[in-house]
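Q: How would the structure tokens look for this protein?
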Amino acid sequence: MSKTDKPFPKWLHSLLSVALLVLVIWAGVDIYQIAGHGAFLGHFDKIWGAIFIGYLIFSTAFLIGLMAALWLPEKTITLIRPVLKIRNYGWLRWPLAVLTVTWPAYILLYTSYGFDFSPFGIRLYFFVAAVILGGLLLTTDSQKICSGLGILQSIILFGAVFLMAKSFVTVTNFPLSLTWSEGNRMWDYSVLWGRDLYIYPVDKPLEAYIDQGRQSLWGLPFLISGITIAQVRLWSALVFTVPYALFGWILFHTPEIKSRGWVLAGLWVMLFLNQGPIYTPLVLAAILVALPRRWPLLIALPLIFVAGYYAQLSRLTWMFAPGIWAAMMAINDHPLEFSRAKLKSWGIVAAHGLAGFLGGFGISGWKRLQSYFGNISTNVTAANLPDPNAAAPAMSAAPPTGGAVAVTDQALLWARLWPNPTYREGVLLGLLLAIGPLLIFLLYLVITKLWKLNNWQKLGLALPLLAFMAVGIVISVKIGGGSNLHNLDMLLVALVFVAAFGWERGGYETIIHIESVPHWLQGVILLLVAIPAFYPVIDAYPLELPPVAPVEWTLEAIQFESDQAVAAGGEVLFMDQRQLLTFGFIKNVPLVAEYEKKIVMDKAMSGDAEYFADFYRDLANQRFALIITEPQNIRYATADDDWSQENDVWVEWVTKALLCYYEPRHEIKKTAVWVLVPRAEPACVFP
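A: Here is the predicted structure in token form.
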């Protein structure tokens, strides 16, 4: 491949100029609409007026500078050469580049302006401006104002900084749950090593509705006595970021390529997998597969076996993934052919795959598989949703009725493949945006023979990707899923392996010489890093917490009502907010382990009448003196609501039952907490 730079044609200069002008105007209109109120200068609020004027000044100078760099590069570089001398100091260049790409993260995540600057145009402008300024600093060619490689490095740096900032914005001592399931997840994690945090019979088993892989990983902080909720959230932020990059650093660090590019490649892997996002235990299993790639088989195979075992402990559908990844890796490193000389390669590939399969499908995996399929109805029926016109609060122990189709025990919502209220892009378009540029880039390497593969290698890499995609799509459309790409996790991780193989066989050279490849490929490479880097920006907002007073009142109300209930010999059920017991925000209340809301939701989506028979019986007998839950309203979703099907099954199976036998003593709107007590008389008749 020629290393000669391909000059931009005039039409491309024109296209870039128009695109930049449109972006500046687009963002300016958005800021004007936000700022346009008040008496300052006859139309503005003082602060927003200053912001709008500052935007006009900066954007005008920024746009003039970009146009000059595009159309008059020689004159422009001569004019600003004294400023560019800072690039000669590598120890200073990188820290300055980090600071340069950090300001959008600070504004959008750590100031109240993050809510105001919500329009897409403003966020795209912040991204482009920060990336260009960072690229100017990271360009090492003294004859260029900004190079393609500098821009790519700046994009990855921007994305990594933003993703880390977004992950750590949730590190707070706020006692209540930050998301629908966060608080109860902490309870899940604590059970393994923090059982003594609860008032619970020592001779009675205590199990959380979570896999051992996640529980053992996120539960590690509970080995520390007195751990706080902020420290657990800090651990979670680290777990959701660092292992992703570590996986990339291990996989992309090759002795053949004497460069530090693998450091940025690892950060790109963190961004790429965040598009799922991917649960960390699967990433740890992938690390165990990648780590011994160049080690002797006697060391590599046991690690691959452990990867398979750990994967199936974390999720049953992952049990075969490490074996398949290991086989793909061996096929790439040891080309297969039908000849005596290649018999050893066949053996190596088989050994890698078999080690992973035995780990995943060993005794433990086989027992889990039998248990899983033993709990699934053999009948393929209509897993129906409730009738929105049903009278409330009528009680029914029968499954909801409606129109989705079920396989195994839960409905498949095929509409979530397409854009919908639950997932803006839909599964298929979201997947195309996430992996499309990477697939095009890898195909380019293969077609141009930069990456030479024989037919067996092509099959060995392509067929697993197709299988992972098919499985992931089906799981994604099960009710309860389809809001992102996390169920395509095995595919995304497998693509990282394939990307690393391509990186070694022409990909690295293509990227570092990006300005010498065809212009369309330059665009593909740009999208390959820009899409995952910009992805965290779209829905990034500051952490919005309720005022201190209602939070304190919520805790006081729960503690007071719980003390009264316990003193009278009653039980207190925390369907929600169980972390209040975990971290001692609510004290001296015995734990009721049943009916945690995530398992109740799962049983509702499965239409498990047997499970709910016990639940309804306990409610009818008013077993609990107090129930802590999220707000409960008998309201069926409309077609424009996100999670509409999930809302409806919850209303039909859970809310109607709760409000039949219990009523709210406290409805705390600002903290979204309800405290329920038994009704004097039921509002319905149990069938």
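Residues 410-515 form one domain.

The beta strands are 405-407, 410-412, 571-574, 624-629, 662-668, 673-678.

Upvote if useful.
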